[in-house]
Amino acid sequence: MPSLKDLRNRIASVKSTQKITKAMQMVAAAKLRRAQAAAEAARPYADRVETVLGNLAAASGGQGPKLLSGTGSDQVHLLLVCTGERGLAGAFNSAIVRLARETANELIAAGKTLKIICVGKKGYDQLRRTFAKEIIELIDLRGVRTVAYESAQPIAKNVLDRFENGEFDVCTLFYSRFKSVIAQIPTAQQIIPPAFEETGNREDQKVSYDYEPDEGDILAQLLPAAVGARIFRALLENQASFYGAQMTAMDNATRNAGEMIKKQTLRYNRTRQAMITKELIEIISGAEAL
């Protein structure tokens, strides 16, 4: 049975932890507002890029540039897995890794060659346990405090250079799409060649484009920019999802610490009362013996 000193130390320790989790919750809530605003502001542009690329793909009939129509093969797959650099965010990182792991296992079972680039140390730490040989690079973003378009450009250039060098045929991007503070959706999106969801607006899919001065020159700039825009959106969605998951996790931790403090305080009071009662009984017994 723990002594009163042990119980006091335990209560003090939990109270200190509760202060930390409460502070982290407040910091995450403050950062979430900015991250959520940035992610929502980027969605209209990213959605419009998706629409334009979908129309281009439909009009090309599979005869466009490799970035649009692909290499004609799907043997080598590159998984670009974007996670966080820090933990204490509930299932945020593990949910993205789980989706990437399931996709990787399906590709391996189908006889495909697999390559993985990890953006974020937490995803790398989990994936290397199973796919250490398949991981070809870790991109560290710990020095990046605020995600900007310049943060996505080196990643996009890395992927595009590898594609031009013939290192892979298909690239799939993994990230967590922000829905609400308590809901983040792990998402897999094929970005090279781009894959598009079917929409009900058939007339929009039949839009044709006239290029001036030259179709090839415009697509040569538009397609790489579209890859960068998709990666930038993924980083923004990830940032908002991370802070939302962290705020929820720290709120739960603060509540659990409060419950633990109540239980330990009740146990401390009962133990102290039992010791006082025992001492009184000993005093009374001694007095009666005299």
Spatial ordering of strands, largest sheet: 3-2-1-4-5
Output the structural class: alpha/beta
What is the distance, rounded to the nearest whole angstrom, between the alpha carbons of the first and last residues?
32 Å
**Helical coverage, percent range:** 55-70%
SSE topology string? HHEHEHEHEEHH
**Which band does the percent of strand residues land in?**
5-15%
- Globally, the shape reads elongated
Topology:
Blueprint (H helix, E strand, L loop, with lengths): L3 H57 L5 H4 L6 E7 L9 H18 L3 E7 L1 H11 L3 E5 L9 H16 L5 E11 L2 E10 L9 H4 L9 H75 L1
Parallel strand pairs: 1-2, 1-4, 2-3
Antiparallel strand pairs: 4-5
Helix pairs in contact: 1-7, 3-4, 5-7
What would your notes on this structure say?
The chain is α/β, with parallel strands linked by helices and 290 residues long. Helix content is 64%, strand content 14%. It has helices at 4-60, 66-69, 92-109, 121-131, 149-164, 202-205, 215-289, and strands spanning 76-82, 113-119, 135-139, 170-180, 183-192. It has a five-stranded mixed β-sheet with strand order 3-2-1-4-5, with helices on both faces. Helix 4 links the parallel strand 2 and strand 3 (135-139). The radius of gyration is 28 Å and the shape is elongated.
